Amino acid sequence: MSTISVSILVFFALICSLIAVLVGLKVKGKYIPNGVLVVLGFMAMSVGAVFGFLNYGEDYDAYKRLHWQTLTPSQIQPLVDEGYTVFVDITADWCNICLANKASVTHREKIVNALTQSNIILMQGDWSQPNVVVESYMQTQGRGGTPYNKIYGPGAPNGIVLPSQLTMESVLHGLNKAKG
User: Fold this and answer.
1) Whole-structure pTM over 0.85, yes or no?
2) How far apart are CA 37 and CA 59, in angstroms?
3) What would the DSSP string read from start to end of the chain?
């Protein structure tokens, strides 16, 4: 557990202890305004929620396990013929939607676990700078911009185009459909 988590947990325990002491004093007849107890209760819930968020249990470094190959369109069909699923990601450093897709979908532990299966090949085309291979591939796809994600596999040899704004469900559904 990180230092921040321990600190939050200690603060949470202090607030709960203070609430318990004040309730005890109120039961013994001391005047403790109800508003104080309500405010402390909301503080305890808020601190507990922050602790829960920080300790959700997801590995936020999971994306480091992703091993992207450089996009090589000529290799896609032979890999699919061998039974592999190929996940293609066309991205660019300046593309805000691409960055959002990474943060909210492709770098999430659940998706990383799905993408790191032994039968899945990851290919990425970086269009941050002019790139003839990426440009040619995108022309064959009838697309002119990023983000672009497509999943090829035995169940979808022509590929499944994913929405520009990825969701975890769309990626998992596409992977399942493509593997056949």
Assistant:
1) no
2) 36
3) --HHHHHHHHHHHHHHHHHHHHHHHHHTT----HHHHHHHHHHHHHHHHHHHHHTS---TTGGGG--EEEP-HHHHHHHHHTT-EEEEEEE-TT-HHHHHHIIIIITSHHHHHHHTSTTEEEEEEE-SS--HHHHHHHHHHT--SS-EEEEEETTEEEEEEPPSS--HHHHHHHHHHHH-
Q: Which two tokens stand for residue 159?
A: 């590929």
**Cα distance between residue 73 and residue 80, in whole Å:** 12
Give yes or no for a contact between 128 and 111, defined as CB atoms under 8 angstroms apart: no
Name residue, tokens 């497509």.
150
Q: Can you tell me the mean pLDDT for 163-180?
A: 96
The pLDDT value recorded for residue 1 is 59
What does pLDDT average to over the chain? 93
Segment 67-122, tens digit of pLDDT: 999 999 999 999 999 999 999 999 999 999 999 999 999 999 999 999 999 999 99
Rg (CA), the chain: 25
The C-alpha angle 3, 15, 24, rounded to 5 degrees, equals 150
Quick one: which of 172, 177, 137, 171 has its CA closest to 153?
Answer: 177
End-to-end CA distance of the chain: 41
